[in-house]
Amino acid sequence: MSGDPHPVRDGTTVTVENLSQSYGDVSVLDGVDLTVEPGEFVALVGPNGAGKTTLLRSINGVLDPDGGTVALDGTPVEELSSKAVSRQVATVPQDSHVGFSFTTEQIVEMGRTPHQSRLDWGTDSEPIERALERTETAQFRDRAVDDLSGGERQRVLLARALAQEPSVLVLDEPTASLDINHQIRVLGLVAGLVSEGNTAIAAIHDLDLAARFCDRLLLLSDGHIRARGSPESVLTDDALATAFGTTTAVTRNPATGTPTVAAFDERPSVGGRVHVVGGGVPGQRALRTLWQAGFDLSAGPLPAGDRAAELAAALECPTVTAPPFEPVDEDLRAEATAFAREADVIVVTDGPGGEALPETIDHSASIRAAFGGQSGVARQRVAALGDGGGRPPAGGAGIDRTVTSAETLLAAVRNCLDSG
Fold first, then answer.
1. 105-162: per-residue pLDDT in tens?
2. pLDDT value at position 210?
3. Bridge partner residues of 42 (DSSP)
4. Alpha-carbon distances of 211 from 122, 216, 229, rounded to whole Å
5. Which of 324, 333, 362, 369 minimizes the number of CB atoms within 10 Å of its CB?
6. pLDDT at residue 118, rounded to an integer
7. What distance in Å separates the CA atoms of residue 252 and residue 261, rounded to the nearest whole number?
C-alpha cells in the first residue's frame, strides 16, 4: 500500500503478566505472560477457541483481567481512561460489519475521536488523508460502507485505526476477508508501521503469512502459550501437533525463505522402510509421495541445500547430504549405502546424486519406476523415479515391472513389500 515513510517514533511497550480470563465457569486464558517492545510485530497463532481474541481484547482494554495485569509502558490499562487507552492503542476487529450507512470518510474520521475534546470537534484532515492514502481507500471516500465488499470494509477499518495515530496496533484476523493481493499489502503496511517504531500484535489464522511478516509468534492452545519465539522455532511439527491435534509438514518456502506449513487429516502408518536417492524436483516428489503414504523414509546421498534435502530434513528423515557439484566422498557414500541396505525398498530418482550408490545392494526383489517415461535404471529391489537431471547407469537385470507415475510407484513399492 502507498504512502511516504514516516520517521521512527517513540513506541509503547505492551506487558502482560500472569493474565487470566474466564467466561463464566470456562477458563479462556490462564497465566499468560507477554512483552512486546516497540518495533516488534508479534502474531498470535493457534486453533479456534485458543484465546487469541480474548488476549487482544484484554490488551486494548475492552476486557478487565480476572487476574494479572496488562500495562502500557508500565501503566496498568485498567487505571487509564478509555480515551487515554485509545490514544495509544487502535484496534482492527475481525468483524467488518458497520451498523449504520456511514461513508468511508466518515468512518475514518472516527479515528480522530480520542484526540478531540468535548468542546473541539474540528476535523484534523492530515491524518485522515494519510490513512486513506496508505490503505488505498481514498477512492471509496464518498461511498457508503454498506456498498463495499467485506475486504474493502476491512481496509476502511484499518484506515480508521491509522487515523487514530496509535503507537500500538491490535489486529484480529486482519486478512481474513482479503484477497491474496491485499493480504500481502495489508501485512506489509503493518510491517512498515512497525519499522517506524510502532508496536503490532495480531491474531493471524494463516501460519504462512504469520511466518513471513511477523518477528515473533506466540502459539496459543487451551488458554496457554505453548511456544514462543521466531517463526522457525515455533512452527515445528511437534508444537503444531500439540496445539492443533493434526499432522503437519513444515518446510521452507523457496521464494520467501520462511516456514510454510502443510496440514494432513491423518498420516497413515504403514510398515516398511524406503530409501530415496537423488535430489532436485524428482527426489522431492518421491519423498513427498512416499511420506504422505505413511512409509518410514531415509534418504541420500542428496546435494546439500537441495530442495529434496530440505524436505527430508523437515520430515525428520535420516539423511546423508554431500557437497553439490563434487564427487561423493567415500565415507558419505558408505553411510548412504548402509541406510539403503537397511531399507526394504530403494527409490532412485534421476535427480542430482541419483547415480551415487553402488550398482548392487543386496535385496531379494527388484522393481523399476521411470517417471516421465525414462528408463535404463537397474537395482536389486529398486524403484527409479525421475523427470530430469542426471540419469543413473543403465541396466535391466532382475526388474519385475516399470512404473511411470506416483500412483504406480506406490503400488509397485507396496507390491514389493507384500512379496517379502
1. 999 999 888 888 765 655 678 999 999 999 999 999 999 988 888 888 888 999 999 9
2. 97
3. 201, 216
4. 42, 8, 11
5. 362
6. 66
7. 9
**Which grid cell is 365?**
526383489
pLDDT per position as a tens digit, 350-359: 777 777 776 5
The single-letter code of the amino acid at 13 is T
Measured between alpha carbons, how far is 2 from 132 in angstroms, rounded to an integer? 9
Looking at 78-175, list the stretches that DSSP marks H as alpha helix, in order from N- to C-terminal side. 82-88, 104-109, 125-134, 150-163
Say whether the peptide bond before residue 358 is cis (omega within 30 degrees of 0).
Answer: no
Strands 319-322 and 67-72: unpaired
Q: Structure pTM?
A: 0.76
Is residue 16 within 8 A of residue 76, CB to CB? The reply is: no
Amino acid type, 18: N
- 197 with 41: CB under 8 angstroms? no
Burial code of 172-195, b = ≥16 C-beta within 10 A, e = fewer?
Answer: bbbbbbbeeebbbbbbebbebbbe
| Residue appearing with cell numbers 491524518 | 127
Contacts of 108 (CB under 8 A, 6+ apart): 128, 131, 132, 137, 141, 156, 159, 160, 163
Helix/strand number for the chain, H first, E second: 13, 19
108-131 burial: b if 16+ Cβ within 10 Å, else e:
bbebbebeeeeeeeeeeeebbebb
DSSP type of residue 258: S
Q: DSSP code of 373?
A: G
Cα separation, 412 vs 394, in Å, equals: 20
Locus of grid cell 521464494: 255
Q: Which of these, 293, 185, 306, lies nearest to 251 by C-alpha position?
A: 306
> CA-to-CA distance for 313 and 252, rounded, in angstroms?
10
Dihedral, CA of residue 389, residue 392, residue 397 and residue 401, to nearest 10: -20
180 Cβ contact list (under 8 Å, min separation 6): none
